[in-house]
Amino acid sequence: MLDSLPPLNALKAFEAAARLGSITAAAQELSVTHGAVSRQIRALEAHLETALFERAGRGLVLTRHGRQLHAGVSEAFATLRSSCRALSREIEGAPFTLACPGSLLARWLIPRLDRLHRELPALRLNVLASDGEPDPRRGDISAALAFIAPPWPSDMQVIEIAAETIGAVAAPNIAARLSGRPFEALFEETILETTSRLQAWPQWAQACGLDEAALAGARQTGQRFEHLYYLLEAALAGLGVAIAPRLVIEGDLQSGRLVAPWGFVDTDARLCLLLGRGTSLQSGEQLAAWLRHELTAPA
């Protein structure tokens, strides 16, 4: 076997045939003839001195060596495609599309969007509200802003923005009943939470030294909401005590619409910017730096 790299066209033909399981399909995708793909694969097998495919009925099946090669080749071509896509976006000035949880978008980012557009005009930022966990790997978004806990996903670039802090919050009339009292006073109120962050109350209880078993019992008689937005509206309406990230409710705290009678605690999660492979790291770092500055700037 030679140490030199096989011809790129041979590797490209092999990758397509292995992925599609058919020489005919590979030829159609590559806009070449069936014979051209076959010749490229035979040349690659000769170069590597091993068989890469076996016949299985009318289709193809990778050999053990074929599977080993395909794992590396498919990853390499994915990286090449992503690099070219990132460069094209930079050259063409394609918009930077940011997915963001709806509550964070509405309560924190939107009030700052005008300033963001003025200060980072070259970014050409588009924002959209994400349902569930936004995934920049799906290709139609450049990055996602989200609270996540390590370990970070290995197939995305992750830029940390800030630590997450959470706290028990309530409307002023309920908070007045809790202020100055021990944490156990919480059990006298209705506990509100969102299904998207069921771990939030246990994290808060552990940090505060509150009996988690007692908390679990109180949660069973509480009320759950599908989205953080509805949870916060319920808290503002005085329906009970909610658990929420400080960043999302900072405006409500400053206006006095919500009160955190016991303050806030850190979690192991971080507010992060998640970049897909095809997203410019330079653009992501520019946006991350702006977000950090906004988080530390005076209100």
TrEMBL record:
<dbReference type="GO" id="GO:0006351">
    <property type="term" value="P:DNA-templated transcription"/>
</dbReference>
<dbReference type="Pfam" id="PF00126">
    <property type="entry name" value="HTH_1"/>
</dbReference>
<dbReference type="InterPro" id="IPR036388">
    <property type="entry name" value="WH-like_DNA-bd_sf"/>
</dbReference>
<dbReference type="InterPro" id="IPR036390">
    <property type="entry name" value="WH_DNA-bd_sf"/>
</dbReference>
<dbReference type="Pfam" id="PF03466">
    <property type="entry name" value="LysR_substrate"/>
</dbReference>
<comment type="similarity">
    <text>Belongs to the LysR transcriptional regulatory family.</text>
</comment>
<keyword id="KW-0805">Transcription regulation</keyword>
<dbReference type="GO" id="GO:0003700">
    <property type="term" value="F:DNA-binding transcription factor activity"/>
</dbReference>
<dbReference type="InterPro" id="IPR000847">
    <property type="entry name" value="LysR_HTH_N"/>
</dbReference>
<dbReference type="GO" id="GO:0043565">
    <property type="term" value="F:sequence-specific DNA binding"/>
</dbReference>
<dbReference type="InterPro" id="IPR058163">
    <property type="entry name" value="LysR-type_TF_proteobact-type"/>
</dbReference>
<feature type="domain" description="HTH lysR-type">
    <location>
        <begin position="6"/>
        <end position="63"/>
    </location>
</feature>
<protein>
    <submittedName>
        <fullName>HTH-type transcriptional regulator TrpI</fullName>
    </submittedName>
</protein>
<keyword id="KW-0804">Transcription</keyword>
<dbReference type="InterPro" id="IPR005119">
    <property type="entry name" value="LysR_subst-bd"/>
</dbReference>
<keyword id="KW-0238">DNA-binding</keyword>
